[in-house]
């Protein structure tokens, strides 16, 4: 399938979207799990899709940037699941923490 120049330009110069995470499962033994309900990774050009999923997101907990080695990403039933490794945090995350992700994500219905 041939792509139009407009389609290619829009996919290359896409704006990063932002989502606020909600608590999904805080009682897991290894992870604090949060969910970006209604979000998925954006469809982008095939050449760019080979980047690792952590390279496509910037995650902040209470305005502090989090390293990609401190979390894992997976698809959940209602959106993206971000699993923060409990062993990498000296504090406990809870539902009151403000966790945002910015990156190659899009909202779907």
Describe this structure in words.
It is a single chain. Helices cover 7% and strands 41% of the residues. The two termini are 26 Å apart. The protein is mostly beta strands and 109 residues long. Strands 1-9-5-6 form a 4-stranded antiparallel beta sheet, with no helix packed on it. A 4-stranded antiparallel beta sheet has the order 2-3-8-7, with no helix packed on it. A two-stranded antiparallel sheet has the order 4-10. The protein has one domain.
List the helices and strands and how they pair.
Blueprint: H1 5-12, E1 17-20, E2 22-25, E3 31-37, E4 39-41, E5 57-61, E6 64-65, E7 71-75, E8 79-85, E9 99-103, E10 105-107
List the keywords.
109 residues, mainly beta, 4-stranded antiparallel sheet, 1 helix
Q: Give the N-to-C terminal Cα separation.
A: 26 Å
Radius of gyration: 15 Å
Strand order of the largest sheet: 1-9-5-6
Give, in order, the helices and strands: HEEEEEEEEEE
The tally of structural domains comes to 1
Largest sheet: 4 strands, antiparallel
Extended strand count: 10
Task: Output the structural class.
Answer: mainly beta
